[in-house]
Amino acid sequence: MTELEKLDAGLEYCFTDPEVEARKGNAVALCRELNATEHTNREEQCAIIGKLFGSAGENPAILPLFQCDNGKNIHVGAQFLANYNVTILDIAPVHIGDYCMIGPNTLVTTVNHPLSPRGRRKRLAQAKPVTIGNDVWIGGNCTILPGVTIGSNVVIAAGAVVTKDVPDNCVVAGIPAQKIKDLEDDT
Fold it and tell me: Which of 39, 75, 95, 113 is catalytic?
């Protein structure tokens, strides 16, 4: 298998492989274009998001500086908002539902590296998808780790590190994030 085929299969792959690195080129260029677009120019911003993301619902809004690894692995629903300095490392797919807001300085990552020095010296990585439901508010300075599924009607408190799945209708906080409160679904 090529390194790109390994990546797509969810296996360990070498992240410095030229084919793997080439995927980032389009994302880097489109992120640069998106970040240079006036945030009030919604039409242009939506057009760039349409080229960058795999799919986007109506009225997405992204404030600068947004960064991602691939772009085409990001799928967001209607009324998506990413505040300042959001990074989505979408080596594997990231699915985000409708009416979701991501706070500033937040990282959503699908990629991880080996614990062994030998594996890291070989520049190995492995990716697992992230899924986020509808009506989720991720506070500022949060980290969402690979393989996590976050339910609908969830609030991730500022500074939380989400290391495991989060059920619907709750608030989680802390490092690692833990459920601290149930929420009513009033939709």
Answer: 113
The pTM score is 0.94
Task: Please write the tens of the pLDDT for every residue from 96-131.
Answer: 999 999 999 999 999 999 999 999 999 999 999 999
- Beta-sheet strand order (sheet of 101-102): 61-62, 81-82, 101-102, 136-138, 154-156, 170-173, 178-182
Q: Which residues contact residue 11 at a Cβ distance below 8 angstroms, ignoring those fewer than 6 apart?
A: 1, 126
| Domain extents in the chain | 3-182
Reported in sequence order, the residue ranges of the chain that DSSP labels E, i.e. its strands, are: 13-14, 55-56, 61-62, 67-68, 74-76, 81-82, 87-89, 94-96, 101-102, 107-109, 111-112, 124-127, 130-132, 136-138, 143-144, 149-150, 154-156, 161-162, 170-173, 178-182
Its CATH class, for the domain covering 3-182, is: mainly beta
Annotated active-site residue 113? The verdict is yes
